[in-house]
Amino acid sequence: MSATMDTESTYSGYSHYSGHSKKAHRQGRDRHKSPRSKDGSRSEKSVTIQTPPAEPLLGNDASRAEEGQDDNWGETTTAITGTSEHSISQEDIARISKDLEDSVGLDCKRYLGLTVAAVLGLLVFLTPIAFILLPQILWRDDLEPCGTVCEGLFISVAFKLLILLIGTWALFFRQPKADLPRVFVFRALLLVLIFLFVFSYWLFYGVRILDSKDTNYQGIVQYAVSLVDALLFIHYLAIVLLELRQLQPMFTVKVVRSTDGESRYYSLGHLSIQRAALVVLENYYRDFTVYNPALLTASKSRAAKHMAGLKVYNVDGPGNNASGQSRAMIAAAARRRDSSHNELYYEEADHERRVKKRRARLVVAVEEAFTHIKRLQAEEQQKAPGEMMDPREAAQAIFPSMARALQKYLRTTRQQQYHSMESILQHLSFCITNNMTPKAFLERYLNPGPTLQYDRDRWFSKQWTLVSEEAVTSGLQDGIVFVLKCLDFSLVVNVKKIPFIKLSEEFIDPKSHKFVLRLQSETSV
To answer: How many helices (H) and strands (E) does the chain have?
Structure first.
């Protein structure tokens, strides 16, 4: 009997070891496959949208390290402290170096475009002035006298150039929100149009005025005025193409986050794919709740727990019944699947009960803490100067009484990686300064807020990758799908054209609203 037990334990250990080796082999195979899956199919085009420099997305490793801790880890503490441990591999170092090279290339491209635009803008504003001053410098004695009409044209040129300067500053001199992977087509066309326009004016000026040394100075000034007028019309064209054209909604886009399925709908006008992606990202940080990977591990841990409860004993010898073991495990998993929905139901019910319980404790603790604060009036501040505190000191004084309840609630709802002790103290000080209620203070922690609500170094993703089968400079069309990828998840965007709506009118005569009362014998009227 002891020999049988030893044999069973040996085979059990062998099965356990073989299961681990298969798992390790499978993980290695998936790791080798992952670079190919990340790049997508060959038919897709992948480009990068890089936002202004900021810290990368943090907090994920800390959340993974803290998942295995017990919920009662803060029984004897009165303050919240946040620590994180990060490890880096050779692949991460190579990826980081590649990102740095890409960022250097994007910065060079951005500064080159700004330099070209600045030089062209300076040429545009100096050209009318040069047209007026060059005859005065080169052949001033031969020029005809400038009369009243000519002097009035000087004032016209000055004010038109001032208006053009203000309009150019308002339309073009803006801080860039992102680095797009390709050039903005309409902006490049406007720059080319302005260059050709100014070049043609200089060519005509050199041939007809400089070579012949025209003495009609009023005609030369009138020529400069016509240039400024044409530049103003080009500026109006730029406003129409860059600002007004995209205002009318033409498409509806559905944005779905790949990890948890959260979705939003937005209306867009005539935009290119890359500019539509930029609008989607701007709305994402404002409308979507913050991405919390800790909430997605429940189903994985539940499946792992179910599979861990299955034990297979090989009594026929190693290597003889591998396919039989697989069929046995699949059959056992199918039998356990019938009862897994009950486990899921009771697990979610227990989690909701614990969340409600700790939420109630947190609300009571915060309300009691706020009762110890009283705003002093002007006459009361002169009576007891030694007892006065600023908002920061008051927040530090009442924080320990609510720290334990807040800490346990954040751990239960798995939000601890997004709220550090310093951020909580700052928010508490802000609420005290503005005389806000305990309910207003708790709103940030009881309900997951948008991504912009949290610290920048915890949510801001430095780099997004735009994957599209169409060219990113092409306009939106019905049925186009593109993907925005970052480090932890992706946003799938589906474009649908707003349908044409036909409305008809029907006139109702107000005199036609006449009614009669129908009486029946069984009614109570």
So the answer is: 14, 6
CA–chain centroid gap for 229, Å, is 41
Instruction: Examine the domain organization and report whether 465 and 425 are in the same domain.
Output: no
Pairing of strands 490-497, 251-257: antiparallel
Q: How many domains does the chain have?
A: 3
**Tell me: the pLDDT tens digits for 465-524?**
999 999 999 999 999 999 999 888 899 999 999 999 999 998 888 888 888 887 776 655
pTM of the shown model: 0.68
8 A C-beta contact, residue 237 and residue 467? no
Q: Specify the pLDDT at position 357.
A: 92
Let me know if residue 14 belongs to a domain: no
**Please, are residues 277 and 49 in contact by the beta-carbon 8 Å criterion?**
yes
Question: Cβ distance 462 to 55 under 8 Å?
Answer: yes
Name the residue with tokens 């309900």: 447
Number of CB atoms found within 10 A of residue 193's CB: 13
How long is the chain? 525
- E-strand spans in 175-281? 251-257, 263-268
One DSSP character per residue, 456-476 reads HHHH--SEEEEEESS-TTSBP
pLDDT digits (tens, 9 = 90+) for 325-367: 566 666 666 666 556 677 778 888 888 899 999 999 999 999 9
Domain membership of residue 321 (yes or no) is no
pLDDT the model gives residue 115: 84
Q: Could you tell me if 464 and 440 lie in one domain? A: no
Residue range(s) defining the domain that contains residue 405: 295-300+334-447
Host H or E run for residue 316: none
Question: Is 260 domain-assigned?
Answer: yes
Torsions phi, psi for 490 (to 5 deg): -140, 155
Residue of 212, 235, 163 lying closest to 220 (CA atoms): 212
